Amino acid sequence: GAGVSQTPSNKVTEKGKYVELRCDPISGHTALYWYRQSLGQGPEFLIYFQGTGAADDSGLPNDRFFAVRPEGSVSTLKIQRTERGDSAVYLCASSPWSSGSRNEQFFGPGTRLTVL
Amino acid sequence: LAKTTQPISMDSYEGQEVNITCSHNNIATNDYITWYQQFPSQGPRFIIQGYKTKVTNEVASLFIPADRKSSTLSLPRVSLSDTAVYYCLVGDSLRGGADGLTFGKGTHLIIQP
């Protein structure tokens, strides 16, 4: 079946602009996660959804970052007033969130964001 | 305090068995140990997970001693395509939130011909 997809694959924007990154999880997966990965680093947790609600947004770096998942499926990560330090690969993952798949997440290919 | 510690890099050769050890001295009673693999320009991929003793699947084995303060990922007969970054995580995502989702810097495994 189809895996997690993310669009766009690449996004170049200018400092101060607003961007939206989209994630389409695997159908039926209730949990959805956003991560940010900088060069040479491991993925850094940003936010986690269980259904439509943000169960944990403790990883969001500041209030310029916001994410939604209005219907419990597709999610959008929104970044306002982008800064050069926001440049990174943004990864999305989904999980069926069951004891049989504890800690098993399915990752998308990521969106490479470059802020000029 | 880091939840896990792994070597930054390792080298090996095709056909060899590779063992990557992860230290997690402060592992909690209900924590699981999970390993992911990541190739360049791709998202991480789940490899294996365990709680204690030994777990084996078609890709790897995971050895966990009785005190659970470390774990070893074993890759049998590696090939060039096993060159990747390997991450060790501890926790339980079913507790909710970010538990079990700290990746660290991982181990960059390089396989040579």
Walk me through this protein's architecture.
The complex is a heterodimer of chains A (116) and B (113). Chain A has 116 residues and is mainly beta. Chain A contains no helices and eleven strands. In chain A, strand 4 (31-37) and strand 5 form a beta hairpin. Chain A is globular and about 45 Å long. With 113 residues, chain B is mainly β. Chain B has no helices and nine strands. The model of chain B has no long low-confidence stretch (mean pLDDT 92). The A-B interface holds A 4, 31, 33, 35, 40-45, 48, 50, 55-56, 58-59, 91, 93, 95, 97, 99, 102-110 and B 32, 34, 41-46, 49, 85, 87, 89, 91-94, 96-98, 100-106.
How many extended strands of chain B? 9
Overall residue-averaged pLDDT value of chain A? 93
Biggest pleated-sheet summary of chain B: 5 strands, mixed
End-to-end C-alpha gap of chain B: 38 Å
Portion in beta strands of chain A: over 45%
Largest sheet of chain A: 7 strands, mixed
CA radius of gyration of chain A: 14 Å
Low-confidence stretches of chain B: none
Beta-strand content of chain B: over 45%
Layout of helices and strands:
The complex is a heterodimer of chains A (116) and B (113).
Chain A: E1 5-7, E2 10-13, E3 19-24, E4 31-37, E5 44-50, E6 53-56, E7 65-68, E8 75-79, E9 88-95, E10 106-107, E11 111-115
Parallel strand pairs in A: 2-11
Antiparallel strand pairs in A: 1-3, 3-8, 4-5, 4-9, 5-6, 7-8, 9-10, 9-11
Chain B: E1 9-13, E2 18-23, E3 32-38, E4 45-50, E5 53-56, E6 61-64, E7 70-75, E8 84-91, E9 107-112
Parallel strand pairs in B: 1-9
Antiparallel strand pairs in B: 2-7, 3-4, 3-8, 5-6, 6-7, 8-9
Index terms:
heterodimer; A: 116 residues; mainly beta; 7-stranded mixed sheet; 0% helix; globular; B: 113 residues; 5-stranded mixed sheet; 4-stranded antiparallel sheet; 46% strand
